[in-house]
Amino acid sequence: MIKPDFRVVKVFFLMAAGSALGVYFQLPIGAVMGSFLTIAIAQMVGLGAKPLQVRSKRAIQMTIGGIAGLNINSELLNELKAIFLPGLLATLSHFILALIVAYWLQKVLKIDWFTALCGSIPAGMSEISIIAEDVDADVQLVTLMHLFRVSMLVTFLPFIISVLFL
Amino acid sequence: MILVIVGGMLGTLLKIPAGALVGPLFLVGSFKAANILNLNDVPQIVRWGSQACLGMMLGLLFSRDIIAYSKKMLGGILFVGVVSVLSALLIGFVVYQLTDLSLITAIIATVPGGLPEMLTLASSVEANTQAVAMFQLMRIIVLMLVVPVFLRMIYKRFRSEG
């Protein structure tokens, strides 16, 4: 007989409770932030739930992509022309900054060069983890660096935007 | 719904970076831009549900192992996060000066956060989601084209020297 995994129930309860609190207290992107903070804290305290399977992740990403697609209009091509060069400039700036941060991590924290580089370059977390494996970097540390970067941005950026600009 | 599923499958099969998200984004977007699809928004419950799931997806990546890292190492990891936030504001301001985008859109567009997270943030503060998607995609695609070549090149040189 298969034993029910109560961690799944706990995760869903925490997700629902966290997102409801986030919306109730009117946090910026409250549903995301509420469920993220609740589950991340529970995981660090010892909830021990496994990350979502690829199929579930894809379903979430597809839904988010579909909803965002509703905001696209016929001005897309004109807009693309206008933002192409600034977009490249921003990407180049991120890349140069990543090299500087990696250099600092290597010099000060003695993290090996490839781990520092893979952890600092702001590309997709899963894609970078695959490359990290190829160049013998510490994949767990690389993933953690990307996770912290995205988490900090998700947590603090909405507050900064709502305090400074809204 | 069909467009989302077909777009997600296409994006994944064609191995586009973040294909499961980008596929539906462009397929739904193309139908919307061509005025074939006359849907402007989804029910609030769907929006909240997807956002809550996104938070769960990110939260589940954390584990107790994080506490095992030394304080110095965690400090370094936090430093990378702080630099990301500050650089996002700075680069966003430069992009704002160079384009017609609003400051909020420019900042969200240039932030090196995840694509789904930034799209969600953009739509919740009524920023230009289209521009945010374009900027974020450009960063991911360019870096995913350049970084593997760059890293493998210096790795080969490093191994041949050492």
TrEMBL record, chain A:
Transmembrane segments: 31-49, 83-105, 146-165
Biological processes, Gene Ontology terms: regulation of gene expression
Gene Ontology CC: one annotated term: membrane
Domain of life: Bacteria
Keywords: Membrane, Transmembrane, Transmembrane helix
Stored Pfam families: AbrB
Matching InterPro entries: AbrB_dup, AbrB_fam
NCBIfam families assigned: Gneg_AbrB_dup
Protein name in UniProt: Membrane AbrB-like protein
TrEMBL record, chain B:
Keywords (A to Z) from UniProt: Membrane, Transmembrane, Transmembrane helix
One Pfam family per UniProt: AbrB
InterPro entries linked to this entry: AbrB_dup (IPR017516), AbrB_fam (IPR007820)
Record's keyword annotation contains Chloroplast: no
CC terms in the record's Gene Ontology section: membrane
Coiled-coil intervals, chain numbering: none
Residue stretches spanning the membrane: 46-62, 74-96, 131-151
GO biological process: one example: regulation of gene expression
Keyword flag RNA-binding: no
This protein's name: Membrane AbrB-like protein
Protein species of origin: Melghiribacillus thermohalophilus
Native organism taxonomy: Bacteria, Bacillati, Bacillota, Bacilli, Bacillales
